[in-house]
Design brief:
Chain lengths: 235, 588
């Protein structure tokens, strides 16, 4: 799956380069491209916000943070990348409910988020900055470094030991990224992640059906097992 | 130019618990009442039904029912030397912004604050001497007594459908209840909620330590209930989606399913949603009405009124007073002025306990299926002298909205991602519980509100500026609480536990509590307070404000009990005293 995605991305990149000379793409070519896209839709994720570099970064990140094991499939198979893409494309990503008037000051951490960036803008600035850091440190962007290097980088990033030159504050971006990964794992599947209710299955959260008036007594100190139900299941 | 509307008898600003209570009571008394609510209409059937309401991301993390900080927020700082910056998104506290206000998304915890709060200065001075109270601690008696408020607590508990067990009936201590509570005239309207395992284990351990645990009183109906006004409650389903959510079963006592629909059936009452009040208009010793903007059209209106009632969220009530220039703004340097004084918050500590092999079912809980012990809270016999702090904290356990994005306890030291994180998350979600302590915050000279000099809201008005941090008193209390919580946790012999530690500085980022108090405090005279004991402005006798903004300091308890009681108390004072003889109800 992952290799397929990379192949597709390489293809798209080369296609862009190749067609640059013939800027006036003809209709048949366009239709052909559409057909190709439609054919691959079932196998590859469709994005509405993330660009190719961002897709590669996010896919590598969520698969590193949520590796496949007996508890759940890997992050991209759970749709965490899709959750993030949708969140950034939607109103939250565009700064809904975010006070965006200046003046802008860095402030004290107790004063919370103070960047003049919407979440989508922070991702757009933050991912190239993180890749530039990886390129400088490891010679390659994040999605091309090996697992041990990814782990080393993420641990340093989380611990505040990574700075982005001329980019947004690394720590603030990491905080948002991590929150979004967790949301993509555990939010209701209608938001694009938690595919197959994988996050809920992993911990035994029974979902949204919760008529426990009698269960609260009946299952005291007993494992409660029931079919896990999401919003879509009840709609 | 504002369009001037026809005068009404009373205008209510904000339609949550207090606005709903006053609207209903005053409309029933024959007054023509208009309520102005900045948010939109919401109802259980249309907005809080299954399955859509059970969306943790939307309601907990995207703040669907809360104030939109894009339009109006506050600036924040820890002390006067810092530059205040805007709270650009919600975090530490969550004011509501729809019809029903914060009563829609609260948990339901309903406490009776006692004379331990209302007589705070005199009680501590009497017992410990005047010098026990630090010079910067601006605590004062509230000017009201528990005995005066008791019938109104009772009224509110029956309207809100509170489940609980009395600990003190007319002076007689009752087994199973809170022995430290003040006397109540009668039992709660509903028996306590079913005790969940975490609460049971906490209660057993607390008893072993010699404490006096009891089931927390909460407006989650333990069985189907019809309140004295005829509002019908379903039985709580322990669904685990309580705090932050509207209740689809109408089992959580909320204004939108009790007092507000009753007011709306009364022809004397009119609700205008999407109406953002920008100013209270004052003329001499009276207010004449308010100006507001219809946020759907941008049009501005003046609504003249015989009585103006500020019933918005506590912070916004103070903001309106400051924007309207009513009363003298508080100045911490000179310690002059009163509007903005004694802003208080709460503190707290929490420990996670991990028990291999137990099944806590954290998703199976009511908003208030917790148990509490008040041995270090409203217990006057707890000697504070060796510990050097004033106030107290209630200890408790139970789950409240233990949903998986926000609640995934793992032992400290667990990695934040990868296979080890997944394994620990999977292992401990259902096998952990917590013990917490919620602590009071005493008023301090340097914790206050004023208007921000730089930042503005969508209406071009200055944002409110909040200056707050925990002081030595809270740190001492927090250390004491952390030790007691950790001792209790150890006594339960868990597989492991994440020890509680003191909260040393206030940050706006993590959620803590929507219990912001003070700013337009009640008191005995105009030099120490903004409103009198009837919550009537000292500066304008036809202006009242009801909310936690009138609290002279903050207790460890959730504020809604006294907020609801004071709404009925004020409604009564207006109906039985003020309307007969409009003027100051207490002479200055």
């Amino acid at each position: 799956m992952k290799n397929d995605a990379f192949d597709r991305r390489s293809f798209l990149k080369s296609a862009v380069v190749g067609s640059a000379a013939a800027a006036t793409a003809t209709l048949p070519q366009s239709a052909e491209a559409q057909q190709r896209a439609a054919a691959s839709a079932s196998a590859a994720p469709a994005y509405s916000f993330l660009n190719l570099e961002e897709q590669a970064f996010i896919e590598a990140l969520v698969d590193h943070m949520v590796p496949a094991d007996e508890h759940s499939p890997k992050g991209t198979d759970v749709g965490i990348n899709i959750y993030i893409d949708r969140a950034l494309a939607g109103s939250w990503g565009k700064g809904a409910r975010l006070y965006m008037q200046g003046p802008w000051k860095q402030g004290h951490p107790n004063q919370g988020y103070q960047l003049p960036l919407t979440p989508a803008e922070l991702y757009r600035a933050g991912i190239p900055a993180a890749n530039a850091y990886c390129a400088k440190t490891y010679g390659k962007p994040f999605d091309k470094i090996d697992e041990a290097q990814r782990e080393e980088f993420l641990l340093a990033w989380q611990a505040g030991k990574v700075a982005f030159e001329g980019g947004p504050p690394a720590r603030v971006f990491f905080g948002m990224l991590y929150q979004n990964v967790v949301q993509g794992m555990f939010a209701d599947p209608i938001h694009g992640g938690n595919r197959g209710k994988a996050g809920w299955k992993m911990i035994g959260f029974p979902g949204i059906i919760a008529v426990h008036y009698q269960n609260v007594e009946k299952y005291r100190d007993k494992r409660y097992t029931a079919e896990i139900v999401s919003i879509q299941d009840m709609s | 130019m504002a369009i001037k509307l026809k005068e009404v008898d009373a205008v209510v600003v904000g339609l949550g618990w207090t606005g709903g209570i006053l609207s209903k009571e005053l409309a029933e008394a024959g007054l023509k009442v208009v309520a102005l609510e900045r948010g939109g209409m919401r109802s259980t059937a249309n907005d809080y039904s299954l399955p859509g309401v059970r969306d943790e991301l939307r309601y907990v993390h995207r703040h669907d029912l809360m104030q939109d900080t894009q339009r109006d927020t506050l600036t924040i700082r820890n002390n006067v030397k810092m530059e205040a910056l805007p709270m650009r998104q919600l975090g530490s506290f969550l004011p509501g912004e729809v019809v029903g206000g914060s009563s829609v998304h609260w948990s339901g915890h309903t406490w009776r604050w006692t004379d331990m709060e209302f007589k705070v200065r005199s009680l501590y001075e009497e017992r410990y001497g005047k010098s026990f109270i630090p010079p910067d601690m601006t605590i004062q008696d509230w000017g009201i007594t528990y005995a005066e408020l008791e019938p109104y607590y009772d009224k509110f508990e029956y309207v809100a459908g509170v489940s609980g067990k009395a600990g003190n009936l007319q002076g007689k201590i009752q087994p199973g209840g809170n022995p430290f509570e003040a006397p109540r005239a009668r039992e709660y309207p509903l028996p306590p909620l079913t005790t969940i395992l975490a609460s049971q284990m906490f209660a057993d351990a607390a008893k072993n330590m010699g404490y006096h645990p009891f089931p927390r009183p909460s407006a989650n109906a333990s069985r189907a209930y019809t309140n004295p006004d005829g509002a019908r409650f379903g039985a709580c389903q322990y669904c685990g989606f309580c705090q932050r959510f509207g209740c689809e079963a109408n089992a959580k006592g909320s204004a939108h399913m009790t007092v507000i629909p009753i007011a709306m059936r009364n022809p004397n009452f009119e609700l205008r949603t999407h109406s953002w009040v920008t100013k209270v208009l004052k003329d001499g010793n009276r207010v004449t009405g308010v100006t507001y903007t219809n946020v759907l059209t941008g049009e501005e209106y003046e609504q003249p009124a015989g009585i103006v009632l500020l019933n918005a969220y506590a912070i916004n009530n103070v903001h309106l007073m400051l924007l309207s220039g009513i009363g003298t703004p508080y100045d911490p340097a000179a310690q002059k002025g009163v509007v903005g004084k004694n802003y208080c918050y709460q503190t707290g500590v929490s420990a996670n306990l991990f028990f291999e092999g137990r099944n806590f079912n954290p998703f199976m809980a009511a908003g208030g299926s917790n148990w509490t012990a008040d041995d270090f809270n409203i217990n006057l016999d707890f000697d504070r002298a060796p510990h050097g702090f004033i106030g107290g904290y209630s200890m408790g356990s139970g789950f409240n909205t233990a949903l998986p994005i926000g609640y995934r306890p793992v032992p400290r030291g667990t990695p934040s991602w990868g296979k080890a994180w997944k394994a620990a998350t999977a292992k401990w979600y259902q096998t952990a519980m917590n013990i917490g302590a919620s602590g009071s915050v005493m008023a301090n000279r340097y914790n206050y509100y004023d208007l921000d000099p730089t930042y503005r809201n969508a209406f071009g008005q200055p944002l409110m500026r909040m200056t707050f941090d925990y002081k030595e008193n809270e740190l001492k209390m927090g250390r004491h609480a952390a030790q007691k919580v950790n001792d209790l946790a150890k006594s339960m012999n868990p597989t492991s536990f994440n020890a509680a530690s003191v909260r040393d500085s206030w940050s706006v980022v993590p959620y803590q509590s929507t219990h912001n108090t003070g700013g337009t405090i009640m008191g005995t005279n105009p030099s120490n307070s903004v409103v009198n004991k009837y919550l009537q402005s000292w500066d304008a006798h036809n202006l009242f404000t009801v909310g936690a903004n009138v609290f002279a300091h903050n207790a460890s308890y959730n504020p809604t009990g006294p907020v609801g009681a004071l709404a009925y108390w004020t409604a009564d004072a207006i109906k039985t005293k003020y309307l007969k003889n409009p003027g100051p109800l207490v002479s200055a």
